[in-house]
Design a protein that fits this description.
7-stranded mixed beta sheet; 14 helices; alpha/beta; 3-stranded antiparallel beta sheet
Length: 394
């Protein structure tokens, strides 16, 4: 057969995301067992409705959109009004004074990362990431010749280890990518650890021609529980960059609205912003969806009902505890990352699948021996899954 596709893409297809693999296995299981007998905890697809205000905003947008250029092209960096409003919102959140020109609207947080990596990576550059980590990061930087370098975080709660990350820095290190609250562990990295990491990066950058960027991927920022807070990131370093989205916080995942926010203290900030604006266009995104930007602008001070997520988190913890699974209580996001009994995450996921429970092996996130469960599912699904968890654990 002819070589129809690129070798690296063929390899990626053969090692497809474990999240998608298990999701598809669940679809097959539903056909044979019936949907009511399948408990799917595989995919982080928020099912909580957007804020109620979204209804009126959408009606208003529908009336306004049907006009000349109402749904036409816009500046590649996003609608000026949205960027200005978002900058004001992030100024309050991050504690750094931002203007609209310091923010770029992107096609989700994923599009933000891809555009940023295209603008900054050379072939062979390294991106350090604490493990476990969101598996797609490897593709985001690998498309442009970059290499993801996982650095295992130890302990039951996978706390951030600044010394371990700094010890892995080489001449080819271009970025350190953090995700807090973390997918898959739910860990929130504390201010002290972030400050220690930033201090080390700032010290290294003082003698480097090509600086190391400190990146924060923050789509789960609002999901913090039991009084936990997510520290502001931009003040840590002139090389700090925040990338986020409204997919989870406003339940707008399908609208694909994200952003890049750069610390204005960065020397050459305008050059970096111009480069990311260019790659945002030339990668084929052109611009973030216009209706999504306008919807997000109107809802910047809103968020989904976190009480629903908190209640599900408690219910999931109760079920896993009753089943005999060991786990660190997640402080944020909406995932659990328990240990796989016996240490073999693939074997345990197979046992769960036999009982109708769909989970994702931890090796899909760079940490074998654990499984990932998403608690963004109906409460009934969580509670009814207890007998199946118990059976698999036996």
């Amino acid at each position: 057969m002819q070589n129809l596709i690129a070798h690296d893409i063929a390899e990626a297809m053969a090692n497809a995301s474990w999240i998608r693999r298990m999701f598809e296995a669940g679809n097959e299981l539903r056909k044979t067992r019936g949907p009511e007998n399948v408990f799917d905890f595989s995919l982080g697809n928020p099912d909580v409705p957007p804020p109620e205000k979204a209804r009126a905003v959408l009606h208003a947008l529908a009336d306004d959109a049907i006009r000349p250029c109402g749904l036409g092209y816009m500046p590649n960096a996003g609608l000026p009004g949205f960027r200005t409003a978002l900058a004001a919102h992030l100024t309050r959140q991050q504690g750094v004074s931002l203007e609209g020109r310091h923010v770029i609207a992107t096609v989700g947080a994923a599009g933000a990362l891809v555009a940023f990596f295209r603008a900054t990576l050379e072939a062979g550059d390294e991106v350090l990431v604490p493990a476990p980590y969101f598996v797609e990061y490897g593709f985001y930087c690998g498309h442009f010749g970059g290499r993801l370098v996982p650095v295992p975080m130890k302990g039951p709660d996978f706390a951030l280890d600044p010394e371990a990350l700094l010890a892995r820095v080489t001449a080819r290190t271009r970025a350190i990518l953090l995700n807090s609250p973390n997918n898959p562990t739910g860990a929130i990295y504390p201010a002290e650890a972030l400050a220690a990491l930033a201090e080390g990066v700032n010290r290294l950058n003082a003698s480097r021609e090509r600086p190391i960027y400190l990146l924060a991927d923050e789509p789960y920022r609002v999901f913090a529980f039991d009084g936990a807070t997510v520290p502001p990131f931009l003040p840590l370093s002139p090389w700090a960059v925040v990338l986020g989205s409204f997919s989870k916080s406003l339940s707008l995942a399908g609208e694909r609205i994200g952003y890049v926010a750069v610390n204005p203290a960065l020397d050459g900030v305008e050059t970096l912003l111009a480069a990311v604006t260019l790659t945002n266009r030339t990668l084929g995104y052109v611009n973030a969806p216009i209706l999504g930007q306008r919807l997000a602008e109107a809802l910047l001070d809103e968020q989904v009902d976190l009480g629903l997520y908190a209640a599900r988190r408690t219910a999931m913890a109760d079920v896993l505890t009753a089943a005999g699974l060991r786990f660190a209580m997640p402080r944020g996001a909406f995932y659990f990352f328990p240990e796989a009994p016996g240490g073999d995450d693939l074997a345990f996921c197979k046992r769960l699948l036999d009982e109708g429970v769909i989970a994702v092996p931890g090796r899909g996130f760079g940490m074998a021996g654990h499984i990932r469960l998403c608690s963004a599912v109906p409460m009934e699904t969580i509670r009814r899954a207890l007998p199946a968890f118990k059976a698999a654990c036996r």
